[in-house]
Write a structure and sequence with these properties.
heterodimer, A: Rieske Iron-sulfur Protein, 6-stranded antiparallel beta sheet, 4-stranded antiparallel beta sheet, 10 strands, B: 356 residues, 19 helices, binds FE2/S2 (inorganic) cluster
């Protein structure tokens, strides 16, 4: 049963950047897109489970810091090897200046 | 003294997994996120400029070489062309493989395909082997790209200055793959669904080489092969010269790039050919930083790194005695001194490694 979780303040993530969010033994990446929207994916790259928090956000893509695999963080789609498996994505809403994710 | 098994399917690799050396946590110098984002930023400009210069020089040198052929006056132009084909393409292969040279992915991919062909490295196979090199840098039995093994195969290294082993192995593997087969070592790091691509590329390359050879036979001259194929041999020396410096003589089985990689200050021409990979500790620690930002990255973290070698000559003055000593005593290696202010290596992890 999924539930909405208060993850962070909307002003805690720069535009075109991400932060890490850990919750009950799980880890996520929350993104702030260049046009002001927020998105959430699993935090670990599907190639070798390296955390994406140190990666590079360019427009709507996140590049993994280890071997440069890229994903579309809106859909989770793996765009570039060595990642071949898509990231899971989660619903996001912004209320009262807070970013909530449904997990 | 222990005998090392560098194969991907051997005992050392199995042991590295067992003790946690495979896919381990590696040391990173702390850099504020804001600075790191600035360093990682991509742009097309520098790589377009360098690529235009590179191809213009290649076309120019080859055109003069062809015009002067078969006179010996053509030799210097072939040698210059060869270094760009057989060495500069190595660094282009590398940077575009990481996808960091250009901002536009398609540009990275185009240059990667061309450079892979020049270097006779299957673009699919080598993308995966290089990912492993970054996961398990100089971990014995895990890293498929260790050049100077212990004891060092000096004859092989010297021959590779003329592409003798690497290029011939590349061509042999191309034929092997073109026959529809994947070598078991390759299969250990290339996912199943990628393997048909390896075979497809190998077949395209065989067709290209067949065309070039047919042209050479038709003309009764090796001239077509001077332009395509042979420069991988006569122009290989520079990429081997710079490539050997990356890790040779340094520690194996440590999870700190400061101890197993080498940064060397080199001349501007070599830096153009090598695309700044002389900042090798920096590249391994932060592979997201494009080649044209590595000098800035170096400036930002050098307080935490061993002192770089100040020239190619100085690097080899350090490497050659170590490799010679390893011929008799293969457990010997060069211990890197970290600056007094640097964070230390995790000694407790080192102690848990396989016996050396
Ligand atoms: S761990 Fe992300 S690309 Fe390899």
């Amino acid at each position: 049963m999924s539930q909405w979780i208060d993850a962070c303040g909307a002003d805690e993530i720069d535009e075109e950047d991400l932060i890490r969010f850990d919750h009950k033994g799980r880890t996520f990446a929350i993104y702030h897109s260049p046009d002001g929207e927020f998105f959430c994916t699993d935090g670990l790259c599907t190639h070798e489970q390296v955390h994406l928090e140190d990666g590079l956000v360019m427009e709507y893509e996140i590049e993994c810091p280890k071997h440069n695999a890229t994903f579309d963080y809106r859909t989770g789609e793996a765009l570039r090897a060595p990642a071949c498996v898509n990231l899971n994505t989660y619903k996001v809403k912004v209320e009262g200046g807070r970013v909530w994710i449904e997990i | 003294m222990t005998t090392r098994d560098y194969s991907m399917t051997g005992e050392d690799g199995r042991r590295a997994v067992e003790v946690g050396l495979a896919a381990a946590q590696w040391y990173h110098t702390d850099i504020p996120r804001k600075d790191m984002k600035e360093l990682m930023k991509r742009s097309d400009g520098p790589a377009i400029r360098d690529t235009v210069i590179l191809f213009a020089c290649m076309i120019g040198f080859a055109a003069i070489g062809i015009a002067l052929w078969p006179s010996w006056w053509s030799a210097p132009f072939w040698l210059a062309y060869g270094v760009l084909y057989g060495s500069a393409m190595d660094s282009r292969w590398h940077e575009c493989g990481h996808g960091t040279a250009f901002r536009t992915r398609a540009y990275n991919d185009w240059l990667y395909q061309i450079a892979s062909f020049c270097m006779v490295r299957n673009p699919v196979t080598w993308r995966w082997s290089h990912a492993r090199h970054h996961t398990d840098t100089i971990i014995v039995g895990r890293d498929p790209e260790i050049v100077a093994m212990r004891p060092p195969a000096l004859f092989r290294i010297v021959m590779n200055f003329f592409g003798i082993f690497d290029a011939w192995n590349g061509w042999a593997r191309m034929l092997y793959n073109a026959s529809g087969r994947i070598h078991p070592e390759e299969a250990s790091y290339i996912p199943d669904h990628e393997q048909p691509k390896v075979i497809r590329v190998a077949r395209i390359w065989v067709a290209i080489y067949a065309g070039v050879i047919a042209l050479a036979v038709g003309m009764g001259s090796i001239l077509p092969l001077m332009a395509i194929g042979l420069p991988r041999l006569y122009g290989a020396w520079h990429h081997v010269l710079t490539g050997v410096m990356q890790h040779a003589g340094l520690a194996e089985n440590v999870t700190d790039h400061r101890l197993n990689s080498r940064t060397v200050y080199i001349n501007p021409v070599s830096r153009f050919i090598y695309w700044n990979m002389n900042y090798h500790v920096e590249h391994h620690m932060f592979p997201m930083v494009p080649y044209h930002r590595l000098p800035a990255l170096h400036a930002a973290i050098k307080h935490d790194l061993p002192a770089p070698n100040r020239s190619i000559r100085e690097a080899y003055a350090e490497i050659i005695p170590v490799l010679r000593r390893q011929l008799a005593y293969e457990d010997y290696f060069l211990t890197r001194d970290l600056p007094a202010t640097a964070k230390p290596y995790r000694e407790e992890f080192h102690a848990a490694m396989p016996a050396e």
